[in-house]
Amino acid sequence: MNVREHEQGAVLLFTVLVVGLSAVAMMSALATAGFNSFIDSDQQVSAVSIRAHLFGCMDELLIQLNLDPDYSPTAVSTVDAVCTVSVVNEGGDARSADLTLSEGNVTRSAHIEMIVNGVQLLSVSEE
What we know:
single chain; alpha+beta; 46% helix
């Protein structure tokens, strides 16, 4: 007859601990990835919204320049936003303008090259 101590549950206990800790680590990684993708998508929605507001400010600036070619504001207000503006007279009818809008931690800006006689856009670039 062999004398043995009762150690039959030790292997099962270690197996359950290893599998359990691995599962907890994997779930933590998935939760972190999900949270980060939620934050990224929220910032993307904000950036698109701010871009729409910036282009609304640009439309307002173009309307005002069509009415008065010498219009040179420091800010343009719309229903949704107040954008900072810098209009530079390039000589003759040529103008360039920089519009900037910041909301929260997102900043969008646009540079416009135009001719104010009839308001013709030569270029629009975003940053």
